[in-house]
């Protein structure tokens, strides 16, 4: 089996995570070295057991190394265009951390230079292989809840914006570019068409110049509504997913896939019971009684380990059609741009179709 020699460009939090968790145990790859502008990261690479930790001290040295087949770019977001362009011109295949670019125009430049130099550019949209997402996708594909009416996708933390550069707009910081890019990509991958419109609100509770959370609503032809919510100051976690279908509701509480599905039982023998609700009475807002619903477990999906890197290997070595298509990445970029415009103008933005 041919091994791919890959150099890690940017050995910070994400770059070292790739090396320690994705690449170390994958027999299809060999880490040919690292490059980081922070000299202290070479010691970290040595401590993490990278044999060639001291091999490269510039991007030019990586480009000149004939044995290095590919690079992982895990640098701050505003430097992606520079590195993608440089390594594409050097003939290296490229994995780039998300967001691949700061705009759809930048991404178009990357695609042009990679196509011209016949190299693979794959964006690290690893969340397509998250078990919780794949479990929701399986529900959708199998029509497990009937027609999907509404999807709520949430990611919440209580530790603020991570790191230093992620707090600055010029560096490509903020939660839309950090987590929104993943959650939007999941919907672009799962759903057969783009939303017709988006409405977004950015939150700035921490006082930085970038968003520390947001709410994005995407509305689709046929009536489906998707709400994506990201928070960094949430101390009472809400469900990771709530999915409303015509024939039932599903909840996934967390990354561990706790949750379940509830479907109604329709029968002339089942009576709707009203409840006392606050200072009044309601039947409309009363939950169904135990005999009027059927509860079931989630049909959980377990993806293969190391799926993203195996995908990259197959595309580069075996010329497989990529699962992460450039057209989908471009659609994610355009939805994020529409969301940013919506938040700025406080308006619903129609998504253009070409």
UniProtKB/TrEMBL annotation:
InterPro entries: Gfo/Idh/MocA-like_OxRdtase_N (IPR000683), Gfo/Idh/MocA_oxidoreduct (IPR051317), GFO_IDH_MocA-like_dom (IPR055170), NAD(P)-bd_dom_sf (IPR036291). Residues 133-250 form the GFO/IDH/MocA-like oxidoreductase domain. GO terms for molecular function: nucleotide binding; oxidoreductase activity. Keywords: Oxidoreductase. Residues 5-124 form the Gfo/Idh/MocA-like oxidoreductase N-terminal domain. Transmembrane segments: none annotated. It holds the Pfam family GFO_IDH_MocA_C3. Belongs to the Gfo/Idh/MocA family. This is Gfo/Idh/MocA family oxidoreductase. It comes from Candidatus Borkfalkia ceftriaxoniphila.
């Amino acid at each position: 089996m041919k091994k791919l020699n890959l150099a890690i460009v940017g050995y910070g939090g994400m770059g070292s995570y790739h090396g320690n968790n994705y690449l170390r145990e994958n027999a299809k790859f060999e880490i040919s070295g690292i490059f980081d502008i922070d000299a202290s990261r070479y010691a970290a690479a040595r401590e993490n057991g990278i044999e060639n930790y001291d091999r490269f001290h510039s991007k030019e040295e990586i480009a000149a190394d004939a044995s290095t087949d590919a690079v992982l770019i895990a640098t701050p977001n505003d430097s992606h265009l520079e590195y993608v362009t440089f390594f594409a011109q050097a003939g290296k295949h490229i994995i780039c951390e998300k967001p691949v670019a700061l705009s759809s125009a930048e991404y178009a430049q990357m695609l042009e230079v990679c196509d011209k130099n016949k190299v693979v550019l794959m964006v690290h949209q690893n969340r397509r292989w998250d078990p919780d997402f794949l479990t929701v996708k399986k529900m959708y594909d199998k029509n497990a809840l009937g027609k999907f009416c509404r999807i709520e996708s949430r990611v919440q933390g209580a530790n603020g914006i991570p790191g230093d550069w992620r707090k600055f707009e010029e560096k490509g910081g903020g939660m839309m570019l950090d987590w929104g890019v993943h959650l939007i990509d999941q919907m672009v991958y799962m759903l057969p068409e783009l939303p017709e419109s988006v409405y977004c609100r950015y939150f700035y509770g921490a006082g930085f110049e970038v968003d520390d959370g947001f709410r994005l609503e995407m509305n689709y032809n046929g009536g489906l509504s998707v709400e994506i919510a990201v928070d960094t100051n949430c101390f009472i976690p809400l469900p990771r997913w709530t999915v409303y279908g015509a024939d039932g509701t599903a909840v996934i509480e967390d990354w561990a896939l706790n949750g379940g599905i509830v479907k109604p039982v329709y029968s002339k023998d089942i009576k709707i019971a009203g409840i006392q609700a606050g200072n009044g009475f309601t039947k409309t807002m009363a939950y169904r009684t135990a005999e009027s619903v059927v509860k079931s477990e989630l049909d959980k999906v377990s993806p293969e380990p190391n799926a993203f890197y195996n995908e990259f290997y197959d595309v580069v070595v075996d010329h497989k059609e990529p699962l992460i298509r450039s057209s989908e990445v471009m659609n994610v970029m355009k939805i994020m741009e529409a969301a940013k415009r919506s938040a700025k103008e406080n308006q619903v933005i129609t998504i253009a179709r070409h």
